[in-house]
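Our collaborator T.R. sent over the components below with a one-line note: 'Predict the complex.' Nothing else. No constraints on interfaces, no templates requested, no preferences about which chain binds where. So this is a plain run: every listed entity goes in together, and whatever single assembly comes back becomes the starting point for the next discussion.
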Amino acid sequence: MNEKIIIPPVFKDKHVKAFFTTKSSGVALKDISRISSVPPDKIFMPIQKHTDKIALIESTLYPVIADAVITRETGIVIGVQVADCVPILLYESEKGIMGAVHAGWRGTAESILRKTVKTFVDRFSCSAENIFIAMGPAIRWCCYRVDFDVLSAVSRATGPGDYCITSVDKYCLDLPRANKSQALRSGVPEKNIWLSEECTFCNPVKYFSYRFARGTTGRQGAFIGRI
Ligand SMILES: [Zn+2]
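Returned assembly:
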């Protein structure tokens, strides 16, 4: 099987298994189990609804509605699934806290990544300086034209930053860059943040793209665990 996964370099030497999947590796539990070497019943993915809800996973892996997951448990894998939205992985290296975030424009406008970083800091006494973040393939500004309301909602949450190209009545939004701005404003150092340069819409053979497929499509994912 020609199975491609992406190993984000920012977690190198961090004693954590973290990867993004593609069209060929998908999000099926049996495939993620094989790639991560944990049983399927030790893999947790939330029921995603474009919310700002964060699920803290301790012993039970019962499915809940959330678009971010945080855990410090070993022997499990947490993940999110996407097709154009931004898949984000977080790892705090001192206390071993892991996170996975699904950030579409609604989640970005709800500051889901900032809220996730804040939870690392408030709940687990992490320092933002020790948080490492990887953002996987998502739709980029080359292909993501949005209306003014969407841009306004994302801008209100994100503040100033290099994440939009504007011309006369045309707004092209880069969600990974917007989320990077949110991470920087949360105190995460720029050197700790890695962004995939790939656009899902530009690479429909390699990635599922909701917009390219005009709706019905599969999902790739982002997964992390201390195994
Ligand atoms: Zn593109």
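Summary for T.R.: The first helix runs from residue 29 to 36.
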